[in-house]
Specification:
little secondary structure; SET_dom_sf
């Protein structure tokens, strides 16, 4: 139904380029979501 996000942390041996550090990197792309009449 949904997706879990697993984050690396200071206890991991990876660096900040690890793909598991999704939320820690903050907003990468500005996105606007809006509803249209026909969709």
């Amino acid at each position: 139904e949904g997706f879990l996000v697993y984050e690396c942390n200071s206890l991991c041996s990876c660096d900040m380029t690890c793909q598991n550090r999704v939320l820690q990197k903050g907003v990468q792309v500005k996105l606007e979501v809006y509803k249209t009449e026909n969709k």
